[in-house]
Design goal:
This protein has helices at about 1-20, 25-40, 50-60, 65-70, 75-85, 90-115, 120-130, 135, 140-155, 160-175, 200-215, 215-225, 235-240, 250-255, 255-265, 275-285, 290, 300, 310-315, 320-345, 350-355, 360-364. Helix 1 (about 1-20) runs antiparallel to helix 7 (about 120-130), helix 9 runs antiparallel to helix 10 (about 160-175) and helix 16 (about 275-285) packs across helix 19. It is globular, with a radius of gyration of 21 Å. It contains 22 helices and no strands. Helices cover about 65% and strands about 0% of the residues. It is mostly helical.
């Protein structure tokens, strides 16, 4: 925990000076540092050893398209192929490559879409959110898939047939790495969104979320109707642990960016199409929260939209009147720090996350 916290502080200092034009390449250096530590991490995160075991198991088998395409080796074809591609160089270069893709995606998201004076907040979110930089070191497949989806968003800046087809292709490839990514196909409709549509797209999202929390029985009935589907079989045991719950103080705290985003889309006069697409993508993840309260594993679907919070929170909060912006920002940063601290002290995560380990422990 101490290592990761200190790395985060150093990066924030570099970004601060870069945002003031006192250190021109501070943003680049901070992301290089983040890439370096993500590339060298070893046995850090709950799922790391599992992925190493899958890599070793696959590479002890002969490469055979027949078994790969029929998912005899692994459930996600794309991940199996990636493991075979890295067989000549090993597991550690695979980790480094994933770290490179992820940090390039987040760097471009901050550099291109966040105003310079808000870079520090954007990097703070990336570092201290419990479902971004730190978690990506554990959920290797989904971290890679979510980062590749950020590149799909880059294509959405300008609509043309080529970009749309590339977006479809990338989401298809993402879904072969992590099967749940099939939910991303409808997001391609954002290619066609116009800024004038902002209130008409946002109001239904806000109303839907409120209805799902005010009437949790609808959520439970919906989950009951789909729990017997093959795709939901692995989630059924999680569903049986509890039912959807209504709003609480903790949930409202978590939903703060959603409601600020709603305010931005409905009332702000500074909305542009690119910012609107970022904000809508980040809001989609929050709509899944009522379902995740009944089935915790559905939180994994929210992760596909979490990267866009890095840009959407600065974009939306900067439009608030200052008398509201500062206290709401304080609450937002407190939420991230609380979740960060809790992750390192939770019985679920503490053993695999509390101490940072690197590949140098193995090499030397």
């Amino acid at each position: 925990m101490i290592v990761m916290f200190l790395v985060g502080i150093v990066c924030l200092v570099l970004v601060h000076y870069a945002s003031k034009d006192h250190f021109p390449y501070g943003l680049e250096w901070s992301f290089f540092i983040l890439f370096f530590f993500a590339a060298i991490h070893y046995n850090f995160g709950n799922d790391y050893q599992s992925y190493m075991g899958i890599f070793d198991e696959l590479n002890n088998r002969q490469f055979d398209w027949y078994y790969i395409l029929r998912k005899k080796y692994f459930s996600d074809v794309g991940w199996a192929v990636i493991c075979y591609l890295f067989r000549p160089v090993g597991f550690f270069p695979l980790i480094a490559t994933i770290a490179l893709v992820e940090n390039v995606a987040y760097y471009l998201l901050v550099k291109k879409f966040v105003p310079k004076e808000w870079w520090v907040l954007a990097v703070f979110i990336y570092l201290f959110s419990d479902n971004l930089y730190i978690l990506n070191m554990s959920i290797l497949r989904q971290g890679l898939a979510a980062s590749l989806f950020v590149f799909v968003f880059f294509l959405m800046k300008k609509f043309n047939v080529v970009n749309l087809l590339l977006g479809i292709l990338i989401i298809f490839l993402i879904s072969t790495i992590h099967g749940t990514a099939v939910i991303l196909y409808p997001c391609l409709l954002l290619f066609f969104v116009k800024k004038e549509w902002a209130p008409y797209l946002t109001i239904p999202l806000v109303l839907l979320l409120v209805v799902l929390f005010v009437f949790p029985d609808y959520v439970n009935n919906f989950l009951l109707s789909i729990e017997n589907l093959e795709e939901m079989a692995e989630y059924k045991k999680y569903y049986e642990r509890g039912e959807a719950r209504s709003l609480s103080v903790g949930v409202i705290w978590r939903l703060l960016p959603f409601f600020v985003s709603g305010y931005y889309c409905i009332f702000s006069k500074d909305v542009n199409e690119t910012d609107l697409k970022i904000v809508l993508l980040s809001m989609l993840g929050f709509v899944l929260i009522p379902f995740s309260l009944a089935i915790p594993m559905i939180d994994r679907l929210c992760y596909f939209f979490a990267p866009f919070m890095v840009a959407s929170i600065p974009i939306t909060y900067k439009t608030l009147p200052s008398k509201y912006m500062h206290p709401l920002l304080f609450l937002q940063m407190a939420y991230f720090l609380y979740g960060y601290w809790q992750m390192f002290h939770s019985p679920t995560w503490m053993e695999s996350y509390y101490h940072f380990h690197s590949i140098f422990e193995v090499i030397f």
